[in-house]
Amino acid sequence: MSTRPRLLVLRALGLGDLLAGVPALRALRRGFPDHELVLAAPEQLAPVAAATGAVDRLLPASAPGRAVPRRLDWTGPPPDIAVDLHGNGPPSHRLLRSLRPGRLLAFAHPDTPEIDGPAWYAEEHERDRWCRFLEAYGIPADASDLRLPRPPEPSPAPGAIVLHPGAGAPSRCWPVDRYASVATTLRARGHRVVVTGGADEGDLVARLAKEAGLPDTDVFGGGLPFGRLSALVADARAVVSGDTGIAHLAVAHAAPSVTLFGPVPPSRWGPPDHPRHRVLWHPGPDGDPHGLCTDPVLLRIRPEDVLDALDPLTGTS
């Protein structure tokens, strides 16, 4: 067992959450260079955690939805420092406190008055939130520190426009027929269009591929391994998706992107302000980001809006 002091970070969420947390993880790495930094996160995110350059070891941890894991398989002495990057509520606070860390960094909450942390602001951008959180503890953080190194393996479709119709919940999924309309127009303009999807999105990917008439060589369903997906995004002409993990991966690789927002606004989860990243959003009331039906705000986005946003990124019309 390592004799280094250990710093445990809890962020047992999804791909986009981990990528949005990269600036905070790197800030912790710089702030505690002599510690072993252990990240409690879903096991499938181990390659992503390694790519950040900030994490020494991943401790597998997950729960359905965005819930807090019931327990952590922590072994050995208590962590010297525990950091709650998961949320602001008592469940994550209490999970980390159960390990008896030497020091716990967490947001304040009225139900855990023993934690003297900074205040949580619901309307804050996710990247800025966690950087402000660490700075309140005297740990400098840079919210723009998001880039990942390009993976060594080649892209399976260099220069393609990547369409990703899935998301973490149906409320954030733009309709398949609209993606198909975009794909058909792009192909008529001479672009190669490929479609990707997660391990549980095979039907969604197959429907889009069929409606757009895509060849099998341009269909990447079933959840590409991270290295291959990362290479595909890094060498993409553009990435089109909803508010989900691949949009954050496009940011991490400085790939041009068009992200369709609803029910959550881009002010909370959008890309940095840069011409290569375009967001489509029709202001409206907040919806349920984990709902079972496409959000009405998202439905206000038309295929021609997506094509117009892509024009300056792809250089053709």
Quick overview of this protein structure:
This protein is of the alpha/beta class and 317 residues long. The protein has helices spanning 15-20, 22-31, 46-51, 90-97, 126-136, 176-188, 202-212, 226-234, 245-252, 266-269, 296-299, 303-314, and strands at residues 6-10, 36-41, 57-60, 81-84, 103-105, 161-164, 193-196, 219-220, 238-242, 257-260, 277-280.
What is the gyration radius calculated from CA atoms?
20 Å
- How would you describe the shape? globular
- Average per-residue pLDDT, rounded, comes to 95
Task: Find the count of extended strands (DSSP E, 2+ residues).
Answer: 11
Distance between the termini: 59 Å
Helix content: 25-40%
Q: What is the helix tally?
A: 12
Task: Summarize the helix and strand pattern as letters.
Answer: EHHEHEEHEHEHEHEHEHEHEHH
Taking pLDDT < 50 over at least 5 consecutive residues as the criterion, the unreliable ranges are none
> Main sheet: which strands, in order across?
8-7-6-9-10-11
Largest sheet: 6 strands, parallel
Structural class: alpha/beta
Percent range for β-strand residues: 5-15%
Explain what this protein looks like in three dimensions.
The protein is an alpha/beta fold and 317 residues long. Helix content is 32%, strand content 14%. Strands 8-7-6-9-10-11 form a 6-stranded parallel β-sheet, with helices on both faces. A 5-stranded parallel β-sheet has the order 3-2-1-4-5, with helices on both faces. Helix 6 links the parallel strand 6 and strand 7 (193-196). It is globular. The termini are far apart.
